[in-house]
Design a protein that fits this description.
The protein is of the alpha/beta class and 291 residues long. Helix content is 36%, strand content 15%.
C-alpha cells in the first residue's frame, strides 16, 4: 500500500524528477534529500517500510514522500516512484540511493547526457575510479557486467550503479509487466529489457562515494547475486544463448567524461564514443540546478 504525503512539491508536465528509494536511512536521508532539492525542485522519496525515523527525518522538506506499509524491496520502491512520476507527466526520472553514496549534484551531468541521447538509459558509472572502489564490490560488479552486457547485447560500463536516468519510455517498460524481478535483481533486468525495446545504456563517469560511517549494504552478496545470475541465465536461454549479443558485449563500453557532455567541441566530434576518457570534474564546475 502506498501513501502519498506530498508537501509543497510542484508537479511538472515535462520536467525531470529525482527519486530516492529509502529503507532505514534516517541517518543520511535528510542530507541526501536536501542536496537533491538543490539540484531539482521535484524530488520523490519512497520510504520502503522503514522501522527507523526515515520519514520523520524528512519533515518540513518540500518533497513528495511515498510510503510502503512494509518493506517490499528496492524494485517496488522504484516502480512506486515511476508510477507517481508518470502520473505527473514526467519526461524522465533520475534515481539515486538514499545512503549518501551518490552525489545529487552529479544529476545534472547525467541529465545533460540524456538530453543528447534521450533514447538511452543513462548510468552514472563508478568503475573507472577503481582506486576508490572496494575491491570485493569492484570484481563482483565486473562479473555482473559481463553477463548482463551479454544478455543486453551491448557493453555496459557499470551494471550495478543505481544512479540512473530513466526516460518516460523506459519507465513505461519497467511498470508494464515486462520486468518481473524484485529487489536488486530488477536493476539488472531492466537494463536487458530496455535494450530489447531499443533503449541501450549510456554511461557517464562519476566519482565513487563510500562514506566511512555508512550503514551496511542491503545487498545480500550470495542471495542477490544468485538471483541476478538466474535471471540472466533464463534470459540467455530464451535467446538461444544470444551469440551476437556476446560478440557485441565484448567491445569496450563507452564512458563519457563528466566534463565532456557539456563541451560543444565534444558534441561535434565524430569519433567513436569509446575514445572518450573517463575523468572527474570538480564540484565548482558542475552545471546549474535543473529547471
Amino acid at each position: 500500500m502506498n501513501t502519498d504525503t506530498t508537501s509543497g512539491s510542484t508537479p511538472s508536465s515535462d520536467g525531470a524528477w529525482i527519486a530516492i528509494p529509502a529503507y532505514n536511512e534516517a541517518r543520511a536521508i535528510r542530507d541526501v534529500a536536501e542536496a537533491a532539492l538543490a539540484a531539482c525542485p521535484r524530488v520523490i522519496v519512497v520510504d520502503d517500510g522503514s522501522s527507523d525515523a526515515t520519514a520523520a527525518a524528512l519533515h518540513g522538506l518540500p518533497i513528495t514522500l511515498l510510503t510502503h506499509a512494509s518493506n517490499r524491496g528496492k524494485a517496488a520502491s522504484i516502480r512506486t516512484a515511476f508510477a507517481h512520476a508518470l502520473g505527473q507527466g514526467a519526461a524522465c526520472v533520475v534515481t539515486l540511493d538514499g545512503d549518501g553514496q551518490h552525489d545529487p549534484r552529479d544529476a545534472a551531468r547525467l541529465l545533460a547526457a540524456w538530453q543528447r541521447r534521450p533514447e538511452c538509459l543513462v548510468i552514472g558509472s563508478r568503475l573507472h575510479d577503481r582506486s576508490r572502489f572496494p575491491p570485493v564490490r569492484y570484481f563482483g560488479n565486473r562479473f555482473a557486467c559481463f553477463w548482463i552486457s551479454w544478455a543486453a547485447g551491448h557493453p555496459i560500463a557499470d551494471s550495478q550503479s543505481g544512479f540512473r536516468v530513466y526516460s518516460r519510455a523506459v519507465m513505461a517498460v519497467a511498470t508494464s509487466g515486462r520486468t518481473r524481478c524484485g529487489r536488486f535483481t530488477f536493476e539488472s533486468e531492466i537494463l536487458i529489457e530496455a535494450a530489447d525495446q531499443g533503449h541501450p545504456t549510456l554511461a557517464v563517469a562519476i566519482p565513487g562515494h563510500y562514506p566511512s560511517d555508512a550503514r551496511p549494504s542491503h545487498f545480500r552478496s550470495v542471495v542477490d547475486t544468485a538471483k541476478i545470475v538466474a535471471m540472466v541465465a533464463v534470459r540467455l536461454l530464451k535467446k538461444g544463448m544470444y551469440p551476437p549479443g556476446l560478440w557485441r558485449s565484448l567491445q569496450r563500453a563507452p564512458v563519457l567524461a563528466m566534463a565532456d557532455e557539456t563541451r560543444p567541441e565534444v558534441a561535434r566530434r565524430k569519433a567513436s564514443p569509446r575514445h572518450l576518457q573517463a575523468s572527474a570534474t570538480p564540484a565548482a564546475s558542475r552545471p546549474d540546478p535543473l529547471p
